[in-house]
Amino acid sequence: xxxxxxxELIRTNGFETEALSCIEELSELQKExxxxxxxxxxxxxxxxxxxxxxxxxxxxxxxxxxxKLLFHIHDNEIDYEIHFKEKRIxxxxxxxxx
Length: 98
Fold this sequence. Notes:
Blueprint: H1 3-13, H2 15-38, H3 50-70, H4 75-97
């Protein structure tokens, strides 16, 4: 969806409706992750719900675009935080290896 299409969606449905929809989509992904963990077989997670997982991840990615517009968050702000957090994760990982 383009930014303009998302803006129109927000204008049509309203902030609260779109915010609640985002919460619902995140919850649905959480449910699929839980299913995969519950059906774990040894070191492998269940692949039986992989299509559902893909479907829910796609919904969440769309949701993230909606959230960015709802809260006026720019990609460069998120990119900065991703870079910062990835660096911190790498540092923690490397410190555990030593």
